[in-house]
Specification:
Elements: E1 2-6, H1 10-19, E2 24-28, H2 31-40, E3 42-46, E4 50-52, E5 55-57, E6 68-71, H3 78-84, E7 93-96, H4 103-108, E8 113-119, E9 122-127, E10 130-135, E11 139-145, H5 149-161, E12 166-168, H6 172-193, H7 197-202, H8 204-223, H9 230-243, H10 250-256, H11 267-277, H12 282-298
Parallel strand pairs: 1-2, 1-6, 2-5, 3-10, 6-7, 7-8, 11-12
Antiparallel strand pairs: 3-4, 8-11, 9-10
Length: 299
Amino acid sequence: MRVLVFGAGAIGSLLGGLLSARHEVLLIGRKAHVDAIREHGLRVSGKTVRLAKPDAATRVPGGAEADLVVVAVKAYDTSSAMTHLRGLAKSATFLTLQNGLGNADVIGRTALRVVAGTTAHGVTFVGPGEIRHAGVGETVIGPWRGVDEADLVRLRDVLDDAGIPTRVTSDVRTELWAKVVVNASINPLAALAGVPNGRLVRDKRLLATVEAVCREAAAVARAEGVAIDAAETVHRTTLIARRTAANRSSMLQDLDLGRRTEIDAITGAILRAADRHGLATPLNRALHALVKARDSAAA
């Protein structure tokens, strides 16, 4: 397949690097990262050890062609990304595994075929040309616009073959909400505490907070009509934190680098839904306020 990954950060680089073993992959990313990949290849360490050799560029080339476009930018950049990808909107299948809610809707305003999903892989951006695969997790994909079961099975097989074990679901909305609850329970706390994911489950005080935030967010998801069980979601959250114990969450990496976080697409989405249903969410609201303050200070 011809694969274009728009947003070669941590997770985008991992996906593109793994797919490049068997497919023609073009990573679109920042200049320093692109230059390092062109000169030395993409170094992957941790759970996966590999020197990948995808093509890389800082912008989508004129006349670019792709069978699969992986949108891997931050949630707040999805709309902007689609202006650069408009030329592929009718010919390619678009895949989003981004954090937060609403990305697939934004992509679907332009692209004719959209697959949405989640991934629990933990990846840390070490530096230009290098990432660390810090935790292995499940990837789930489902239909969003213009795709059928056969399309999903083919994409699942491509991802499986690249070393990204993937499951197909017919109810991807539930998976997206479950991932948002997990992210809201892990990312803000890890970012504010300045610790890798594993510390959240080793420290009893942090673990109790993770579980309370998770139950609060799960109640909002249920009010939205999402069939998730609070106890099961707490278990899933702590399991993911353990499996990605060495990973520094994307939100923590953003704060470390003085970049804007995705708090509005994650915890913000939960707060907006809570407001629609008149639900109190004091823990999530406090975490949102604190991370937003850090965002403002960095800006």
